[in-house]
Amino acid sequence: MLALGTIGLSSTVGATTASACASQEGSSAFAATLPQVNQGQRGAEVRGMQLALKDRGYALTGTGFYGESTLTAVKDFQRRNGINDSGIVGSKTWQALVGRMPLHSTYAGEPPATVFQPGGRYPDDMFFLINALNRVNGESVGEFPEFYDAGTQAKVREFQRTVGLADDAVVNAPTWRALYTTFRVAGRSGC
Questions:
Q1: pLDDT averaged over consecutive 10-residue blocks of the chain (191 residues)?
Q2: Which of 58, 85, 89, 92 is deepest in the core (most CB within 10 A)?
Q3: How many Cα atoms sit within 13 Å of 22 on the Cβ side?
Q4: What is the CATH classification number for the domain harbouring 64?
């Protein structure tokens, strides 16, 4: 398990951070909200799915693009879970992949409303950005600088490219949503 701090302060699916962390429930309600994903698509759900499969031993890197290697992994996962191996990631596959995770693995509150501009100073919210990037990349929490520096911008640009967003390093609502969706689908929230 990754040693990553709690993200989010508000509630999601009727849970609070404390109740999500203590819950014995699964994440089926969250899994039910995930859209159908098909080969050839790119996005946060695809990258999260790839990371969830990677964490289960599949040789995927989390490119955000649903290509041949992802299709092979999805079909194998579907067969192993008694699901028709069509490669289409629909409700049954989401429930098997994400719905069975503990609630604390997929729980996250709302991301900050702060829009990060390259070089800006964000002492109150850098924690959220660095923490989200670390969850997506499977890294441990490190230091939280006050400035949105070049190294962090590079990580944001790489993330934006993988999920099909403009790689401008501006962390706005679409980038925040994509970050949170990715680590939630991957089951990398944690308490």
A1: 33 48 81 98 98 96 96 98 98 97 91 94 92 89 83 95 97 97 93 67
A2: 89
A3: 5
A4: 1.10.101.10
This model's pTM is above 0.70: yes
Number of domains in the chain: 1
Question: Is 7 within 8 Å of 132 (Cβ atoms)?
Answer: yes
Please check whether residue 40 lies inside any domain of the structure: yes
Residues in the chain: 191
Q: DSSP letters along 60-119, please? A: ----SB--HHHHHHHHHHHHHTT----S-B-HHHHIIIIITSBHHHH---PPP-PPB-TT
Torsion of CA 61, 54, 27, 34, to 10 degrees: 40
∠ CA 138-148-130, nearest 5°, is 20
Instruction: Return contacts of 71-77, CB within 8 angstroms, 24+ apart.
Output: 71/39, 74/49, 77/53
Q: What is the pLDDT of residue 140?
A: 74
